[in-house]
């Protein structure tokens, strides 16, 4: 939020300036602590007008901080003018952010080479103090494997030359998202259909079981009555007389 507020302040100031005043404002913005995006400044007419004038170095400087790295500066320092110590430090921070956006695991050797740092102690101090504490990169230093594990990082401005690849990436992401959503909807429809079928079968089974229970209750009393109403036949009574046994009475 602090960086956004700073950017808004510089944008408002730049709208009312031109020429040398705009160039001076650009230099201040590039050195301002906590300000790491510059796209809105680059889009201002007063800033664009710096190109092709004796203040063109300021516009090139702003593009460097928006899209470039410390190695870009080392390769053509005359194009951007002499950087102050705060500007050099910020360019190293922005370079680290760019590296974090390209890979989730960055070797110490790569960081030292890209950031122009001389030893591991200097590198670790920079990453912890200027990246982790500044909130521009979240991650973990792995001293055993000599690498930086990146968990998250802020976004930088997108250069016009990068727009095509970014657009292509967004289109691929959109297609994958649509495919996933379609698969989810298909699975949802199948699940609903299977659930409805299972509920229907369950209801039919319960209905049949209920009919079986009712049928059993209806048949049981008539059988018992038939057993109770069965008379004792004369053969049975005669048998009882011949054996001298008294006829047993039903209970």
TrEMBL record:
The name under which this protein is listed is PCI domain-containing protein
Native organism = Symbiochloris irregularis
- Region: Disordered, residue numbers: 213-251
Read off the PROSITE patterns from this record: PCI (PS50250)
Task: Give start and end of each PCI domain.
Answer: 1-155
According to the record, the signal peptide region is: none
Q: Does the keyword Ribosomal protein apply?
A: no
Annotated keywords: Signalosome
| The keyword Amino-acid biosynthesis appears for this protein | no
Q: Which InterPro entries match?
A: COPS7/eIF3m, PCI_dom
Cross-referenced Pfam families: CSN7_HB_subdom, PCI
User: What's the superkingdom here?
Assistant: Eukaryota
Q: Which GO terms describe its cellular component?
A: COP9 signalosome
Its family remark reads:
Belongs to the CSN7/EIF3M family. CSN7 subfamily.
């Amino acid at each position: 939020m602090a960086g956004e507020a700073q950017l808004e302040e510089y944008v408002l100031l730049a709208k009312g300036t031109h020429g040398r005043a705009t160039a001076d404002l650009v230099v201040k913005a590039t050195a301002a602590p906590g300000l790491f995006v510059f796209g809105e400044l680059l889009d201002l007419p007063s800033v664009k007008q710096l190109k092709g004038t004796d203040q063109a170095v300021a516009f090139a400087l702003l593009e460097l901080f928006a899209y470039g790295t410390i190695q870009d500066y080392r390769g053509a320092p005359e194009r951007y003018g002499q950087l102050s110590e705060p500007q050099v430090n910020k360019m190293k921070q922005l370079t680290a952010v760019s590296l974090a956006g390209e890979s989730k695991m960055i070797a110490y050797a790569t960081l030292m080479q890209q950031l122009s740092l001389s030893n591991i102690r200097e590198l670790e101090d920079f990453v912890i103090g200027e990246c982790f504490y500044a909130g521009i990169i979240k991650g973990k230093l792995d001293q055993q494997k000599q690498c930086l594990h990146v968990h998250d990082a802020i976004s930088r401005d997108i250069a016009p030359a990068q727009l095509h690849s970014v657009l292509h990436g967004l289109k691929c992401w959109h297609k994958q998202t649509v495919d996933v959503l379609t698969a989810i909807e298909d699975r949802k429809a199948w699940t609903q259909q299977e659930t409805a079928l299972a509920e229907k079968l369950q209801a039919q089974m319960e209905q049949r079981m209920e009919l079986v229970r009712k049928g059993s209750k209806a048949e049981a009393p008539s059988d018992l009555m038939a057993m109770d109403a069965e008379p004792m036949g004369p053969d049975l009574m005669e048998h009882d007389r011949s054996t001298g046994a008294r006829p047993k009475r039903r209970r």
